[in-house]
Amino acid sequence: MPTAITPDQVHQIVSNHHDNPHTILGCHPVEMDGVNQWSVRAYLPRATEAWVIDPNSQAEYPMTSAHNPRFFECTVPVKLPVNYQIKLQEGDRQRTIYDPYAFSEAPHISDLDLHLFAEGNHHRLYDKMGAHPLDIKGVQGVYFSVWAPNARNVSVIGDFNWWDGREHQMRKLGVGVWGIFIPALTIGTKYKYEIKNYEGHIYEKSDPYGFFQEVRPNTASIVADLDVYEWQDSTWIEKREKSDPLKNPISIYELHLGSWLHGSADEKMQLLSGEAEPIPVNEAKVGARYLSYYELVDKLIPYIKDMGYTHIELLPIAEHPFDGSWGYQVTGYYAPTSRFGKPEDLMYFIDQCHANGIGVLVDWVPGHFPKDGHGLAFFDGTHLYEHADPRKGEHKEWGTLIFNYNRNEIRNFLVANALFWFDKYHIDGIRVDAVASMLYLDYDREDGEWLPNDYGGREHLEAVDFLRQTNNLIFKYFPGIISVAEESTAWPMVSRPTYLGGLGFNLKWNMGWMHDNLDYFSMDPWFRQHHQNSMTFSMWYHYSENYMLALSHDEVVHGKSSILNKMPGDEWQKFANVRSLFAYMFAHPGKKTMFMSMEFGQSNEWNVWTDLNWDLLQYEPHSKLKGFFKDINAFYKSQPALYERDFAEEGFQWIDCTDSNNSVLSFIRRAEDPNDFLVVVCNFTPQLHQHYRVGMPEEGHYVEVFNSDADIYGGSNQRNFGGVWTENWSLHNLPFSADLCLPPLGVIILKIERSKQTD
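Structure (tokenized):
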């Protein structure tokens, strides 16, 4: 049985050098003068006097200083229950606390948890790591745990202890995880971890697993309970689980919450429960503030529903310190940014999206992280989350660090993070950012600036394993969801199952289609005849992946101009080109993503510091373009031929892709029902073709069901009014043909009217 405390043990506690202070502090059996007693010890850096209070008898035992004026000790005749208290005299103030070191057991984290974490297979790691409100034997408080294997010691600091790392020193539980239960702390408590390395350097870090954080520029984590919100979307989730997104219409509106629409800084921010002080945008727009997740329910959701998009995609909403990073330099992977409110506000927003038939994707950034001092960089005084060698651990051009996917714990951190967003926030999909930068060891590096893999190649094999593990698990636990790769190279089988050797995504951004189409549409129409292959090449490789056609935020920044101003010609032609581009996009096989502001023809580039130019909608060309997008979304969703067989060769057939002289393309889209098909004809020049003959697959009467040149969209209204009859004139290897009117810079879509029969 232990005897009295030694000076060396006291020194370790006072100097904050001990990796298991629970073995010294708290209530421990001792033998004194041959009598078994219990010693209660406490290190109280601000106390001048202290007493232990027995909760059963209410007896008070005065404590005395032992070896240090702030290290107190007393003996009691019996073992005290964990809810004993210590009364402190701190100058003129007296207060009573529960002793955090009375809670010597760690019921929140088991040996199995530590084992699974160490091997990289703890799928609900977020339920264990971080800060969790608990009731331990009738005492309310918060259990903190953090991974810092190379730290000499770790403490929790916050307002509750004057940010003094001596007060709440954590103990090392195993595999580098540190933990402590601090009684009386509640939801809303601000905290950080004070981490010391073996050289004595101190690092104050936000919680890597923290669920909430202060509004930038402050960086403390905030205790939150993510299980208090009562979800109402069970019907949506059940329907999603039974669906196949690859056979459903997917039209995604990509947006950045901080620059879609602003409110007035004179008004407080409305939250799900109460209100908060307004969060100013920046000096570029004085008097403006961010809208909260809660406020966006009434602003954004009706807009998306009215416009007919099936999903929204949020640029990264995980916590990030710098507005100008657009969210792509994450410091709080488990914390939705506090710029727009609290976690429950985001939950309410997503819940209401589901109630209105709108799916939610978030951009996820597992490829790199910033060097900010409060974040993951050099976390425990060593290169923990990142590779130590900059040839493998740093993106110099981006100024960011690369995760060390070799480590089980790092992979677990990221895999559990993907699962976390589906589990706790009910998201419907992720778009994984910068996948190409993860797949290649020489990405954006010159010779001599990168290290080959064990086989001498450039493939980042550990990152590949990580992506496969992530996709396997998210589809296992959350069937019916979407996992999209932003991958810009020819890496094979990105959107194929892992059991076939693929990366396991179910969709991949088609970067080639995007570049070819934007290059083509930015040309003077006269030159397009020489670049017909730009519009047809995508179908040569389309079936190699499940492609998402995306015109994203990256295409309207950094001097690239807006979509509208990429287009040649006068104002009429610019708008006609935009309608033609997107009509072709919606008719082309593949799911769809477009960035906010494209739907009404914003003339300026996207600027993260301001909101969209909504005032343009007072002008007819812009308001009519918005009407075009509303209608084409509705039309797209109403036509199974445009989405059911996006990735099957039977779903698409060229009629004629060779008429480069006229820059005309024609093709067929087919649904799973063989009788359900559409004929699409595109004229990418300003020349009206009043009699243009196109081959038809069946005899009959064809109705023009969509025309991008309609006057309601601002077009010239060159139409095939009343539809057209086929003639027994074979053309384009098809048995019939029809004489069509092709509007200038227009796309028409025709459908056979089976209720009418030929004579």
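The chain has a mean pLDDT of 95. The longest helix spans residues 620-638.
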